[in-house]
Amino acid sequence: MITIFNFRLNKLTLLAITSCCMLFIVSCKKYLDAKPDKSLVVPTTLNDLQAILDYSSRMNEGTSFGEASADNYYLNDDDYNTLSDEVKKAYIWENFSYSDYPNDWARVYDVIYPSNLVLEGIEKIAPDAGNQVEWNNIKGSALVFRALSFLQGAFIFCKAYDPATSGKDLGLVLRLHSDFTAPSKRSTVEETYSQIINDLKEAAPLLPQTPVHPVRPSKAAAYGLLARTYLSMREYDSCQKYASLCLDIKHDLFDFNSITDINATFAFPQFNNEVIMATLINSAVYYSISQPFTLVDSTLYSSYSDNDLRKYAFFEPTTTGYNFKGSYSGTPWELFMGIATDEVYLMRAECYARNGDKDAALKDLNTLLESKWKAGTFVPFEAASATDALNLILAERRKELLFRNLRWMDIKRLNKEGANITLTRKVNGEVYTLPPNDNRYALPIPADIINSTGIQQNAR
Question: Is the pTM of the predicted complex or chain greater than 0.90?
C-alpha cells in the first residue's frame, strides 16, 4: 500500500468511500445483480470527491496477472509447488477458472467504479472562479484513473491491438457510469482503446503540469499514459508526440551514482525524481511475482555491464540465483507500475528509431543510460543504422523496465512486429511454451463474471 497522505476526512467522506468500496466488492460476485442501496451516503462536495481519488490503497494499485504471466522471472520447483492451483496454472498459461475476490478483473473495476462516481459527482457541482482549478483537477484525475485502469485491463484481457482486427476482437466491458443495473457487454478492442485515448485527451488540459504529490495525476502523467497507449497500439508517430509533450514538462532522470548503498535491499527512495505518477502492482493474488519468489534469468542478469549500476541496484544474489529488488516503490515487496521518465525516454527513443531518426534515438538512449552507469565509465552507444539503434533500444528497454507491468504488453506488441518471442517455463521436469500471438495472451475472465453477465469468455 502507498501510505503518503494524512487525510482529514469527515464522516460523510468516510461513508462515501466505504459505500463505494462495499458496493463494488459485492459486484465482483454478482456483477449485474448487485443493486445500489439508495440509503447510502453520496459524496456531494469537492473535498468528498478529492478524498475518494486520494484513497491511494485502492486508486493507486493495479493488476498483477500480466506480470505473473511474463518472462521477467522464473520459479524454482520448490516454490512453484507451494502455490495455489490457480497461481500454478497462471504461471504455465493453462486454462483455469477462478472467481474468488480479489482478482485482476475486479482490480480493474475497483478503480473504474469510484472514478465514475467522481465523474458523476463533479457534474453536479457548478464550477466558479473560486473553485475552477480544483474542479478541473478532480475531473481530470478521475479520467486518468479510469483510463489507466482500462489500459491495464486491455493489456491483460484483450488481444494485442491490431488495426486489421481491432474492430472485431473482444475488448473490455466499458463501464462509464456507476449504475450496476446496466447490462454488461464486451466492447471491441478498437472501442476500448478509443475510450482510453478519449479519457486521457480530455483529462490533459484540465490537469496541472505536475501534481502536488506523485500519487495524483497530472498533465505529464496523462501525456505519458497516452504515449504508453499509442506504443501498445504500434502507432509510433502519436507515441512520439505525447512522449515529447510529457518530457517537455518533466525530464528529470535519477542518477544511480547518488544511491548511498547500491547493494542495499532498499536502494531507491519511494518517490525518486523520475516518478511522474506512482502506482503499484497489487500482488496479493499472484504473489509468485513477489521479491522472495522471483528469480531472474542468469542470461538477462549477465547482459548488464559491470559498470552498469542497475546490475547492483536491481538485483540481489541468493543461494539459487538473483532476486529483483529494483522497484521504484521504495520497498522490495511492492512493484512500481506507474509512469516515470525513464520509460518515456525509451518510448520516444524507440519511436525515433522506428521513424528512421537514428541520431535522435541514440541521443535519448544515451541520455538515459549515462544516469545509470558508474560515473566516468559510460561510453555513448553508437549504431550504423536506425534498425541497429532500435535493437539497442529494445534491449535496454528490457533491462530498464523489469517488473513494471509492461513486459506482457511488450511481448504482445513486438510479436505483432514479427519479433517471434516464444515464452517457455520448465516445471517439475516438464516444459510449457506460449508461442507468438497465441489466444492465451488474452487471459481468462473470472468464471462468476461470465456466468452472471453472459459476456463472452476469451478463447483458449
Answer: yes
